[in-house]
Write a structure and sequence with these properties.
The protein is mainly α. The chain has a domain of 166 residues. The protein is globular, with a radius of gyration of 21 Å. The two termini are 41 Å apart. Bound molecules: zinc ion. Zinc ion binds next to loops.
Length: 337
């Protein structure tokens, strides 16, 4: 009993500390400055963050979300990521107890947070995160996960190969393909299939919400400005009914799908509006801006700034599968047979 309580507390504290480290990874990895020895600094004024101001979550609350030096707002995503990683590590211990799979899943959920956030910021899934999951997949060839090697080998290819073919024709990032390859290796074909299906459903729902929100925002802007081209007004009018329908639909789905979806929708909105946002310390802003510049240079027809990154949905679907995968597979087979 005492040991269990100690391990719960250890999971929580280690989860917080690693969550803090994940923020650094998410911020530095896309910039290629991951191995720089520079200490964390305020993105607004450049003042180094002192150790006593760098306590996960708590420092944010004490400083009321502002830099001690320049009082610029610090993005709430830093403490949120720390808290999320902490919660998931505690849940892992609650579900998988004292076992190798707790450690495997601790590493996995932390990597998934990085994948989701970096893909959200930059529309890229870093290879290093895929390699980490690949290593987890290889380690679990030792019989600790209950997944047979045959299932693992089929899992590698059953989703990734069809997606790779789709990727050849565009419309799918290679990062997503590699992610499904390594997830298949870790989970085996049954669960990677579940991950794929859940991610597609979540992705479709989120896309509907995203499009509805964007169209409504555009509609409002045209109405407010009153100076846009006529054809835009026409299309705005024509779409108005559609929009309100979709808005209702998305509203309904929000309540059905719960908090996670709501967060997601809010997050997407933030990206759409980040160009206008003047909040300091939000590193998605600068990265997003850089991304837009790149797109302009490349001049490609698929404009990522208007697309939705798929990585966050894969990450969320994988989390659901880590905790509910067995239940989902059992329920599904009961339904069929
Ligand atoms: Zn500052």
């Amino acid at each position: 009993m005492a040991l269990t309580i100690t391990l719960y507390i250890f999971s929580a504290l280690a989860g917080l500390a690693i969550g803090s480290f994940l923020n650094v990874v998410i911020y530095r990895l896309p910039k290629g400055t991951f191995f720089s020895k520079a200490r964390s600094f305020c993105p607004n004024c450049g003042a180094p963050i002192k150790a006593y101001d760098n306590i996960p979550v708590i420092s944010y609350l004490i400083l009321k979300g502002k830099c001690r030096n320049c009082h610029a707002s610090i993005s709430p995503r830093y403490p949120l990521i720390e808290a999320l990683n902490c919660i998931l590590w505690v849940v892992n211990f609650a579900v998988y107890g004292i076992s190798w799979m707790t450690i495997i899943y601790d590493i996995l959920v932390s990597v998934l947070i990085v994948v989701a956030m970096i893909d959200f910021d930059t529309f890229e899934i870093p290879d290093s995160s895929n390699v980490t999951i690949l290593l987890l997949g290889l380690i679990t060839f030792f019989p600790i996960s209950g997944v047979s090697w045959q299932s693992k080998l089929i899992g590698c290819v059953c989703i990734s190969v069809p997606l790779f073919i789709i990727a050849l024709f565009g419309g799918m990032g290679l990062g997503d393909v590699k992610l499904f390859f390594v997830l298949g290796l870790l989970f085996g074909w049954q669960k990677v299939l579940v991950i794929f299906l859940i991610s597609v459903v979540i992705g479709a729902v989120a896309s509907l919400i995203f499009m509805a929100v964007r169209k409504r925002n555009e509609g409002e802007e045209t109405l407010e400005d009153g100076q846009s081209a006529e054809d835009e007004n026409v299309s705005a009018d024509a779409l108005e009914e559609n929009i309100s329908d979709k808005a209702d639909l998305s509203q309904a789905k929000l309540t059905v799908d719960g908090q996670a979806e709501e967060d997601k929708a809010a997050g997407t909105e933030t990206v759409a509006e980040s160009a206008q946002s003047e909040e300091f310390g939000d590193n998605s802003q600068s990265i997003d801006g850089a991304q837009n510049d790149e797109d302009a240079e490349e001049g490609e027809d698929d404009v990522p700034s208007k697309a939705i990154p798929f990585g966050p949905f894969i990450a969320l679907a994988t989390l659901i599968t880590v905790y509910l995968g067995d239940l989902i597979i059992k329920g599904y087979t009961n339904l069929i047979f």
